[in-house]
Amino acid sequence: MAVDHVDFEVQEGEIFGFLGLNGAGKTTVVRLLTGQLSPHAGQATVLGKDISKSSKEIQANLGLSFETTNLYEQMNAVENLELFAQLFGIRNFKAMPLLEKVGLSGREK
Prior knowledge:
mainly alpha
């Protein structure tokens, strides 16, 4: 496993796609940024914090969309969002503002 000289910034509210060839290191970078792996050299910073020292705090503020479906297809979008919010202990969760933010209002079913 080796990732060398990866450097990018994602601004608040920005939707970022991380693309590349098979074996290019995309999964390794995502695992580093989400705290699933620790860097052997260099550093990974998310939300201004070092992922090696603040992974739990950072993880509470991350959202990812994976290559394969990670949803329950028998449930609609609102039900899926509410389930995952409940699983992650998010209180007073409102699905509709999130769906509106990504242009999916009116398609929540």
